[in-house]
Amino acid sequence: MEHYTIDLTSQHPNSQPLFDNFQTFRASYKLIDDQPIHAFFIVPSQLPPGPRPLLVRFHGGGWVEGEAEASMRPFLLELALKHSAVILTPDYRLRPEHDFPDSFDDIKSFWQWIEDGSAQRLLSTSLPGIIVDADSLMVAGESTGGCLAVQTALLSLTKLPIKVLFLQYPTLDIGEHIRIENPSELMLKCAVWADRTPYSEVEAVLNRLKKGKICTRAPFGTRMHLLQALVQAGKFCDFSGDRELLDPIRALEHAGPLPPILLYHSKEDEALPWQHTDAWASRLKTLQPDVPLYLTYQTGSHVFDVNDTMATPWLKEPL
Questions:
Q1: For every residue of 40-107, which 3-state class applies, written as one string?
Q2: Signal sequence span per UniProt (predicted)?
Q3: Please, which of 66, 97, 129, 153 could form a disulfide with 215 given CB 3.0 to 4.6 Å?
Q4: Domain ranges of the chain
Q5: How does DSSP classify residue 145?
Q6: At residue 21, does pLDDT exceed 60?
């Protein structure tokens, strides 16, 4: 466990000044061949006495890029300050250096690290008197992170009682999103597939990879071409057999009771069709009609909420 300095250039304008109100720590929650996978505690500098709620956030990036502490949404930081909550956000293994299921294996390890109290003990050692109440838990995530958040509940990756799922334009029907009948059809699905990227781009990355080296971090905006190449080559993920439930639209069919859900998506999303969210939400209402669901559709690009605050009109009511 060590103090960590947030790179403010990785944050959006409304988030940058908010970090003056937080302390950040980095800890390893898992080792693979003696290489750490880290999680980051983002802790309000001023906390009242008593156990503090836990806000877990999973980052997006299409499974090919992203850094746990980067691109924190202003409203999540404000929400943590309002409720004196501790934010905890993990890295996880990325494609194409690793297989698709590896990210889920890492997230399961991350939850076990919290469940056995290791995460809480590390924080209380660095900040004596800080008690994290893991039973007062919100799980959030954007895009790919939204998939990991909802799969935490759908696949029971944790035994902790989730109070609410906060899903930001999540990937909810991966199989349909990457299904290929012919290349032209794939490009019509969403604008992000419009540019053709040869699979040789992926091969070049794998050829440069040192044997045994893991990849858990890549700056946002640097590797999306690798996702294009993987999908266009039909090599992103195989959902056959026991991998079927890695897709949230399939996992929903077998899920136990779910917590309340806040779910939103842009109807102008160029990366993930909003119709996938709509279909998933409709199926949820059929299978678990008693689950409180706050569903709203907005406008703008895929990550339209990057600079939004709690004062943003459409966010004020649910938050």
A1: EEEEECCCCCCCEEEEEEECCCCCCCECCCCCCCHHHHHHHHHHCCEEEEECCCCCCCCCHHHHHHHH
A2: none
A3: 97
A4: 2-316
A5: H
A6: yes
Which pLDDT band holds residue 195 (cuts at 50, 70, 90)?
A: confident
Longest dimension (CA), the chain: 59
What would the mean pLDDT of 116-129 be, rounded to a whole number?
Answer: 96
CATH architecture for segment(s) 2-316:
3-Layer(aba) Sandwich (3.40)
C-alpha to C-alpha distance for 240 and 219, rounded to whole angstroms: 31
Residues 47-100 pLDDT 10s: 998 999 999 999 999 999 999 999 999 999 999 999 999 999 999 999 999 999
Q: pLDDT tens digits for 222-250?
A: 999 999 999 988 899 989 898 999 999 99
Strand order in the sheet with 52-58: 2-3, 22-32, 35-44, 86-90, 52-58, 132-142, 162-168, 261-266, 293-298
Are 138 and 162 spatial neighbours (Cβ–Cβ below 8 Å)? yes
DSSP 210: P
- Take residue 285 and report the two structure tokens written for it: 């209402």
